[in-house]
């Protein structure tokens, strides 16, 4: 397996976003949009007649000392900058999407199966967001039985 990765090199957020867009458009996606605000980012696109939205939590600021973000280590131990963490998260999202699309290409799953959780329902919620209450209720009703 070949890689363009060079130890110590960084990939910009915009480069990862462009890579995500290219991968998705190569698989028939259109209407690609990438936005970020208040420590959150999202990638949205359409495929056939369906819309999809993937959310990505981004660091809003470096915490002083040990913060709530587990990816940002204690500042006294050579912490990453907020931008370093953002670059890493965009890179990870790109890798996730690449793996999903490889599974689609291999015929293991369909595009809709692999991206089902991110499919946007007519009311604006993703399938994942819309199904959470029902899943929680089903488990609560089950009482932990198997």
Separate helix tally: 4
Q: How would you write the strand order of the largest sheet?
A: 1-2-3-4
**Main beta-sheet annotation:** 4 strands, antiparallel
Computed CA radius of gyration, to the nearest angstrom: 18 Å
Mean pLDDT: 84
Q: Supply the helix-strand structural class.
A: alpha+beta
Poorly predicted runs are: 64-78
Instruction: Determine the strand fraction and express it as a percent band.
Output: 15-25%
> How many domains?
1
What does this structure look like?
- The chain is an alpha+beta fold and 146 residues long.
- It has one domain (13-142).
- Helix content is 40%, strand content 18%.
- The protein contains 4 helices and 4 strands; from the N terminus they run αβββααβα.
- A 4-stranded antiparallel sheet has the order 1-2-3-4, with helices on one face.
- A hairpin with a 2-residue loop joins strand 1 and strand 2.
- The radius of gyration is 18 Å and the shape is globular.
- The relative contact order is 0.12.
């Amino acid at each position: 397996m070949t890689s363009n990765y060079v130890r110590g090199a960084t990939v910009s957020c915009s480069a990862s976003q462009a890579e995500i867009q290219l991968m998705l458009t190569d698989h028939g996606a259109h209407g690609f949009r990438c936005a970020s605000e208040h420590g959150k980012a999202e990638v949205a696109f359409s495929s056939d007649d369906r819309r999809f939205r993937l959310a990505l939590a981004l660091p809003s600021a470096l915490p002083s000392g040990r913060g709530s973000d587990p990816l940002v280590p204690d500042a006294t131990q050579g912490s990453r900058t907020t931008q370093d963490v953002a670059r890493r998260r965009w890179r990870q999202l790109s890798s996730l999407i690449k793996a999903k699309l490889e599974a689609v290409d291999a015929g293991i799953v369909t595009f809709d199966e692999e991206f089902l959780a991110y499919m946007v329902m007519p009311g604006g919620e993703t399938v994942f967001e819309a199904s959470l209450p029902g899943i929680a209720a089903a488990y609560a009703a089950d009482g932990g039985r198997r």
